[in-house]
Specification:
Distance between the termini: 79 Å
Mean pLDDT: 86
Keywords: Repeat, Transit peptide
Family: Belongs to the PPR family. PCMP-H subfamily.
Low-confidence stretches: 1-27
Protein name: DYW domain-containing protein
InterPro entries: DYW_dom, E_motif, PPR_At4g14850-like_plant, PPR_rpt, TPR-like_helical_dom_sf
Structural class: mainly alpha
Largest sheet: 6 strands, mixed
Oligomer: single chain
Strand order of the largest sheet: 2-1-3-4-5-6
Length: 637
DNA sequence: GCATCATCGA
C-alpha cells in the first residue's frame, strides 16, 4: 500500500514529462526561422546555427530546449569558449521553453567544464533555481578531475545528498576517483554496495582504478575477482592498474586471461601492456604486442605507447622505423621521439628531429621543449640550450616553467659551470624548489664541489627536512672528497631519522622472463655460474687495462672489501648473467633503479669490447649503449 | 535531449 502511494506520483510525473516531450517534438515550428535553427542544430554547420541566435532574439522567438542543447554540444566540438558564453547569454536573456530549461542549463555547465572553465561552471551552478542528479554529477565529476579539488568533490557529494538528490552510477563512477585515502574509498565502496550499484561496469572499473591508484593492489584485485559480468574497460582498468604499479608480469598474466575469457586484444589493454613492457624493458614481449597493434593502425595513443616502449627499451632502430611508418603523428609522437633520442645519447639527432617537426608545422608543447633542453644538457650543448631557453617564449609562445629552468641548471651544472648555475637559480623568476636544488647538488657531486653541495643540500633540507636524496648526495659528496668524518656525520643523521639507502637493483629480460639482481645479493639460482662468469670477465678485461676504481665505493673500508662491494654491483651481476645467456648477435638490455657508477661504466665498456657484445643499460633518466669499448654517452652523464 | 570508467610524451 505504502509503496503504491510512493510510486503513483512519480509515474504520473513521468507521464507528464513524456507528453510534454512529445509535444515539443511534434509541434510544427510556427516560424520558418525556428525550423531553420532546429535543422542547423542537427546538421550543422555550427557557426551558421550560432549566427541565427541574434535573429531569433530580435524576432522575439524562443528556441526549443532540444535544439539549444544540441547547439551547446556542437559548440563543445566545433566552437570556442566565447561562443559558449554567447549561447549562455542568449539563454539567460531569452530562456528556453520551460520543461527543458534544466537540461539546457545542465549542458551549459558541462560545456564550461569541458572548456576548462570550472569557475564559470560553478557560478552557473550556484545561480540555478533547480538542480537534478545530472547537474550535481556534472559538477562533482569536474571537481574530481580537477587538480587539488578532490576534497571539494566529496563535500559536494555530501551537499547533494543533503539536498535530497540520490547519487546514481554516473555520480559514483566520478566521485570514486576523488577518494584520497583507503578509508574514504572503503566507505564509498560500501555506499555503492548499499544501493546495489557496485556491479555497474562503470562503477566497477572506477573502484578498481581507485584501489590501484591508492596502492591497494589486493583491493583492486578482489573487486575484479568478484565480477560476474564485465566489459573490456573493466579488464583494461585492472591491467592498467598492474602495469602502473610496476607489476608488469601481473599485467601480462591478466592480459592473457582476458584473451582467454573471449575478449579481443583491444587498444586500451594493448596500451597498458605496452606500458608494462616499457617499465620492465621487456623488448621481446613488446615486439609481440606490436604484432597485435598492426590492426589498429589508426590508434595514435597505441602507436605512441609502442614508440615509447621501443625508446625506453633502448631500441632506437625499431623506434625510428616505426616513427617513419606511422600513418599519423601528433605532438606526442614527436616529443617521444625527441626525448627518446636524447635519452639514448643521440642529442644531435634529437635536435634535427625537432627541426623537422617545426618544418612540418607541428607546434611544440612545453614537454617537447623539456626534451629539447634535455638533449642539450646531456650533450653539453650549452650555447644551444641557452638559445632555446631564451627564445622559447618568443618562438613558440611557451613560457619557461619549473622543468625548463631545471634543465638549464642541469645544462650548466653538467658542463661544470657551477657558479653560473647558482647565479641562474638566484636570478630566475620562479621560486627555486627542491628539484632545482637537487639538480645543482647532483652537478656539485659530479664536479666534486663539496661546499656548494653542502649549500644546495641545506636548501633542500630547508624545504623538505626528511629528504633522503639530499642527505645521501651530501654524504656521497663528502665521501668522494675523502672527508670521512663529515660523511659519517651525514650518514648518522640519516640513520637517526630511520632512513636507509636504497639498494641498487638491475633487471634483465631472458626468454620473456625478467630476472632481478640486487647489489651484493647472491641468492639468484644461477649465482655460482654468475660469479664464475664475473671472474672470467674481470680476467679478460684486466688484460685491456681494467682496474677496479674503488673510489666509487662511498664508505671508508679496507681496499679488499671495497673491491668486493664493487664487484657485486647489481649491473655487473646482470651483465655476467647476460653474457652467459644472451643470444648471439643480440644486445644485452638492462634496467637499473639507480644511476650507474663510474666503475660499472668502465666495466661495461670493456666487456662490450672483449666479448664483442652490445650492452644497453637504462637508468632512471638515460641510457648507455656500450659497444666496442665506447659508450653512447661519451662518458658524459 | 544534459552527467560516468580504462589506455600515449618530461
Amino acid at each position: 500500500m505504502n509503496s503504491l502511494f510512493k510510486r503513483l506520483p512519480r509515474n504520473r510525473l513521468a507521464a507528464t514529462r513524456r507528453s510534454s516531450r512529445r509535444r515539443l517534438h511534434t509541434q510544427p515550428h510556427s516560424h520558418p526561422l525556428l525550423a531553420t535553427f532546429s535543422r542547423l542544430c542537427v546538421e550543422g554547420p555550427f557557426p551558421a546555427a550560432l549566427a541565427l541566435l541574434p535573429d531569433l532574439a530580435s524576432a522575439g522567438l524562443r528556441a526549443d530546449p532540444v535544439s539549444l542543447t544540441r547547439l551547446v554540444k556542437l559548440c563543445v566540438r566545433h566552437g570556442t569558449a566565447s561562443d559558449g558564453r554567447l549561447i549562455h547569454r542568449h539563454v539567460a536573456a531569452h530562456g528556453a521553453l520551460s520543461p527543458g530549461g534544466l537540461v539546457v542549463s545542465n549542458s551549459l555547465v558541462s560545456m564550461y567544464v569541458k572548456f576548462g572553465l570550472l569557475d564559470d561552471a560553478l557560478r552557473l551552478f550556484d545561480g540555478m533555481p533547480e538542480r537534478n542528479v545530472v547537474t550535481w554529477t556534472t559538477v562533482v565529476s569536474a571537481l574530481a578531475n580537477a587538480d587539488g579539488k578532490k576534497d571539494e568533490a566529496l563535500r559536494f557529494l555530501v551537499a547533494m545528498r543533503r539536498d535530497g538528490v540520490a547519487p546514481n552510477a554516473y555520480t559514483f563512477s566520478s566521485v570514486l576517483g576523488a577518494c584520497g585515502t583507503p578509508g574514504v574509498l572503503a566507505a564509498m565502496h560500501a555506499s555503492t554496495v548499499k544501493v546495489g550499484l557496485d556491479s555497474d561496469v562503470f562503477v566497477r572499473s572506477s573502484l578498481i582504478d581507485s584501489y590501484m591508484k591508492l596502492g591497494d593492489l589486493d583491493g583492486g584485485r578482489s573487486v575484479f575477482d568478484e565480477m560476474v559480468t564485465g566489459d573490456s574497460v573493466v579488464w583494461n582498468s585492472i591491467i592498467a592498474g598492474f602495469a602502473q604499479s610496476g607489476d608488469g608480469a601481473g599485467a601480462m598474466e591478466l592480459f592473457m586471461r582476458m584473451k582467454g575469457a573471449g575478449f579481443s586484444a583491444n587498444q586500451g589493454a594493448l596500451t597498458s601492456v605496452l606500458r608494462a613492457c616499457t617499465g620492465m624493458v621487456t623488448l621481446e614481449v613488446g615486439r609481440q604486442v606490436h604484432a597485435h597493434v598492426l590492426k589498429y593502425e589508426k590508434d595514435l595513443i597505441l602507436h605512441n605507447a609502442l614508440l615509447d616502449m621501443y625508446c625506453k627499451c633502448g631500441s632506437l632502430q625499431d623506434a625510428d622505423a616505426l616513427f617513419r611508418r606511422m600513418p599519423q603523428r601528433d605532438v606526442i609522437s614527436w616529443s617521444t621521439m625527441i626525448s627518446g633520442l636524447a635519452q639514448n645519447g643521440r642529442s644531435t639527432e634529437a635536435l634535427s628531429v625537432f627541426d623537422l617537426m617545426k618544418s612540418e608545422g607541428v607546434a611544440p608543447t612545453c614537454i617537447t621543449l623539456v626534451g629539447v633542453l634535455f638533449a642539450c644538457s646531456h650533450a653539453g650543448l650549452v650555447e644551444d640550450g641557452w638559445y632555446y631557453f631564451k627564445s622559447m617564449e618568443k618562438l613558440f609562445g611557451i613560457r619557461p616553467e619549473k622543468e625548463h629552468h631545471n634543465c638549464m641548471v642541469d645544462l650548466l651544472g653538467r658542463a661544470g659551470k657551477l657558479d653560473e648555475a647558482l647565479k641562474f637559480i638566484h636570478e630566475m623568476s620562479l621560486d627555486p624548489d627542491s628539484v632545482i636544488w637537487r639538480t645543482l647538488l647532483g652537478a656539485c657531486r659530479m664536479h666534486k664541489n663539496a661546499n656548494l653541495a653542502a649549500y644546495a643540500a641545506r636548501e633542500i633540507l630547508k624545504l623538505e627536512p626528511d629528504d633522503q636524496g639530499a642527505r645521501i648526495l651530501l654524504s656521497n659528496t663528502y665521501a668522494d672528497l675523502r672527508q670521512w668524518t663529515d660523511a659519517e656525520k651525514s650518514w648518522k643523521a640519516m640513520r637517526d631519522r630511520g632512513m636507509k639507502k636504497e639498494p641498487g637493483r638491475s633487471w634483465i629480460e631472458l626468454e620473456k622472463q625478467v630476472h632481478v639482481f640486487i647489489a651484493g645479493d647472491l641468492s639468484h639460482p644461477c649465482s655460482d655460474s654468475i660469479v664464475q662468469e664475473l671472474n672470467r670477465l674481470i680476467g679478460r678485461i684486466s688484460a685491456l687495462g681494467y682496474v677496479p676504481q674503488t673510489e666509487f665505493v662511498l664508505q671508508d673500508l679496507p681496499i679488499e672489501q671495497k673491491e668486493d662491494l664493487l664487484k657485486y654491483h647489481s649491473e655487473k651481476l646482470a651483465i655476467a648473467f647476460g653474457t652467459t645467456h644472451a643470444m648471439e648477435g643480440k644486445p644485452i638490455r638492462i634496467m637499473k633503479n639507480l644511476r650507474i657508477c663510474g666503475d660499472c661504466h668502465a666495466f661495461a665498456k670493456l666487456v662490450s669490447k672483449s666479448e664483442g657484445k652490445v650492452v644497453i643499460i637504462r637508468d632512471p633518466v638515460r641510457f648507455h649503449h656500450f659497444q666496442d669499448g665506447a659508450c653512447s654517452c661519451g662518458d658524459y652523464w
